[in-house]
Amino acid sequence: MAGFLFDTVANKLLDYFFNATSAAFPASFYCALFTVAPLSSGGGTEVTGGSYARQGQTRNTTNFPLSSSRTLKNATLIDFGTATAGWGTIVGAAWYDASTSGNGQAYGPFGTPVTVLSGGTFSIAINAMTATM
Question: What's the pTM?
């Protein structure tokens, strides 16, 4: 899954580089799944119900090793567990700064959408989420 930055983060990075403003980021990011992908401005349709919850990952080099060649990948499995009701067809994921609501940080589509039925499981493998600049 290749990813993109939400407008809020792109603006924050531009301000940091060119305006000498601070660029504070949260201590953890929360991975959200989508049945309709968001745009850089936000939106999309996040999965709801059926024991679905965003999965938190602490910002550190264990979960996100230092980038190389303008690329960063997840280094740990992101496990969403077992659905107790159908989650629909998952088309992509996004990182947020909160476990609910919050601000989108980065997002991207999956190469192949996956339908999660009741009793099904969903996880994102190590190195399956890629951020490039």
Answer: 0.91
Distance CA 92, CA 106 (A): 11
Distances (CA, A) of 32 to 44, 119, 133: 11, 19, 21
**Tens-digit pLDDT profile for residues 70-92:** 888 999 999 999 999 999 999 99
Q: List phi, psi (to 5°) of 78.
A: -110, 105
Burial 114-129 (b: 16+ CB within 10 A, else e): eebeeeeebebeeeeb
Tokens linked to 100:
């609910």
Q: Environment class of residue 52 by beta-carbon count within 10 Å: exposed (0-12), middle (13-18) or buried (19+)?
A: buried
Nearest to 59 by CA among 82, 76, 35: 76
